[in-house]
């Protein structure tokens, strides 16, 4: 049976590149009847307004050529209902875009999801399995296997592979995560300087600007400048909001 660790160890082993790990995961997924794979990783999955953040890593296998640009540049990731489902659950799930199918997707899909739904119908990729992985400190990853074919039969087959596909997902994540650089593990869209981070870290302890200046052996004017710069980068109205947002985006992690 595929769902044995011994069957995975020969394919997904530490030290190989992420590309190679994905190729090997595809081999395992194809044995379960899946035609394509989508893997995504985000150090922070949502922004402070609750919108999905484009993932730091998006690995694709056997998907259409325009998939990456649509999901990462054209905003499809933000309106992908499967991604919203994955973020809101801890359990693997089967999904289908067919209106008569009985999956969790039918309960949440709305009109604004139409671009994704239409695209997947055109590509005949309307059914799949997704496994969410909620990581320490708020990171998030998921692996989705897509199937083509007649909707009812595909959905039935997908349900039978849920456990095995989940095992593949966790095995892939275990070998893939150590390959991610420090940059990939931090929010990529806001860059704070070392001094800005230091000032905000002390602010999390409740220190005033004057007290931070004493801790860093800097003038009050310099510390105030660093805090103001950090607030501007974070789009924060005040120092408290800047600390909250910097913590949310994991910008203060060591």
TrEMBL record:
Q: One Pfam family name from the record?
A: GerE
Q: Which GO terms describe its molecular function?
A: DNA binding
Q: Which SMART domains did the record assign?
A: HTH_LUXR
Does the keyword DNA-binding belong to this entry?
yes
Q: Sorted alphabetically, which CDD domains does this protein's record hold?
A: LuxR_C_like
- UniProtKB keywords: DNA-binding, Transcription, Transcription regulation
Domain of life of the native organism: Bacteria
Q: Name one GO biological process term.
A: regulation of DNA-templated transcription
Domain (HTH luxR-type) spans: 185-250
Please identify the protein, giving its name as recorded: LuxR family transcriptional regulator
Give the organism the record lists: Pseudomonas mucidolens
* Upper classification of the organism: Bacteria, Pseudomonadati, Pseudomonadota, Gammaproteobacteria, Pseudomonadales
